[in-house]
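Extended Data, panel c. Modelled sequence:
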Amino acid sequence: MAEINPAISIPADVKPHSVHAATRRQIRGSSLLLAGRLLAMGVNFFVQVLIVRHLSKTEFGAFQYALSLVTLGNAAATLGMDQAITRLIPIYHERGEYDKVFGAIAMVVSSILLIGFATVLFVWGFHGFISQSLIRDQQTVALLSILIVLTPIGALDGVILSMFAVMASPRSIFWRRHVLGPALKLAVVILLVWWSSDVFFLAGGYLAVTALGTSVSAVVLFRVLRDHGLLQHFNFRTMKMPTREVLAFGLPLMTTDLMYLVINTTDAMLLEHFRGTIAVAGLRAVQPAAKLNQMVLLTFGLLFTPAAARLYARDDLDGMKNMYWQTAIWTAVVSFPIFAVSFSLARPLTITLYGHRYADSAVILMLLSFGYYFNAALGHNGLMLRVYGKMRYTVIVNLLAAVINLCLNLSLIPRYGALGAAIGTSGTMVAHNILKQVGLRLKTGISLFEWRYIKLYAAITLSVLGLLLFQLATSAPIYVGLALAVLASLLVVCLNRKSLNVAATFPELLRVPMVRRFFGE
C-alpha cells in the first residue's frame, strides 16, 4: 500500500500562522469541549448508574451486548470516511477547492445512508437465522432488532459532528453533544425508572432521542456552513466527489475502527458465549468509568486533526510538533485526577456506584483504567500519523493490535471470564499505543519522548502509586481517597505549571490574583 502524501499547493496570500497561536487555539477550543464533556460525562454516568440499578443483570447484559453489535454496524456504515473528511476537507478548504468540499460531504452522507439502511434490512430479514445460530439469548435478539436502526442515524450524527470540528465550531459540538444529547438520554432513563418500565422501553427511547438529536445537528450544520460563507460556493453542477482520495484515506482508517471494535465488542461476544450475560454485565458496568480516562484525549482529538491538517497544508512542521507535545502533556495532566480515582480507588468507587453485587468488578475497573490512561497519556500519536498520511503503518499496527486482542481474549476469557477480558483489553491498549509512538518517531520525525517532560510523567506515576498503596494499607473511606486524589492532582500541576504554559494559553486567567500568582511568569 503506497503512502498517501498528496502534493499540496498553497495560495501565495496564505501565510503560516504562529506556531504557538495554532496550538493555543486548539487547546482553548478543546478546553471548551472538555468542560462540555465533563458535564456530559456527569450526566451519562448518572444515567449509567440508574440503568444498572434499575435493570436486572440479565437485562443490562443483553442491552449492552446489543449496543456492542450496533457499534460494529456504525463502523461498517462509515467505512472510515468520517475520519477522512476531518483531514481532507480542511485541506480542500485551504486550497479553495469548494467543489471537492461539497463533493466529499455528499459522498460520505450518501454512502452512510445506503450502507446503514442495508444493515437494518439485513438484521430484520435474517432475524430467525440470527436467533437460531448466532445469539443464544432471545431478549438480546429482540433488543438488537430495535437498536439496529441506530446504525445509519448514529453514523450520520457522527459525520455531522466531524464537520463541526472541521469548521472550527466547538460551540456547536458543545451544545449538541454535551448538552442536548445527555439531557435527552437522562429524560428517557428518568421515565424508565418513574414508570418502572422494562429494557425494551429503554431501547426505544434511545432510538427516539438519537433521531431527534441528529435532526437538530443537521439544522445547526446548515447554519454553520452558511455563517462561514461556504454555501455561496455550492454549485451542484460543478460538485466533484473525490472518491479516490476519500476512500484511499478512509478505507485504511477502517482498520482503526475495526481494531477498537474488536477490543470493545469481541470481549462481550466471547463473554456471552462462554460465561453468559451476567459476565457481560460485570465487565460493562465498570467500563464506562474506566473510559473516562480517555475523555480528555477524545475531546482534544475533535479539533486536533483539522488544526494539524491545516498546519500540514501550510507546511508548518514545527507548528505540528509543538501542537503534538503541548496537547499530549495537557491530556496527561488533565486526565490524571480521573486515573487517580478510577485506578487507586477502584474498589470503594465500584461499591459506592453499583453496590456490593458488583464488588468483584473492582479489579476489572483498575485494569481497564490503566490501559485507557496509558493510551491517553502520550497524546494523539495515531491522529498525527494520519495527518502525515502514514496509512500503511497505521493499517499494520491496527491489524496487529486486533490480532493481539483476539489471541488474549480467546486465551483468557474461557478461563477467567470478565477478568480475562479486562486483561486482554488493557494489554492491547498498551501495546497498540507503544507501536503508534514508535511509528511517530520513524515516520514523522516527532521525538519518541520529550525528556524535558520526564518530571511530569514521573510525578504522575509516583502520585498514583502512592494513592494505591495508601488505599490498600488503610481501606480508607472513599471521601478520604478523593481528598487525597485532589491534593495529588494539585501537586502534579504545581510541579509542572511551566511546562503547561498556562499563562500563554489562557491569559485571561491571570486576571484572577491567586491564579496570576500561581501560573504567572
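The first helix runs from residue 19 to 54. This feature is highlighted in the accompanying rendering.
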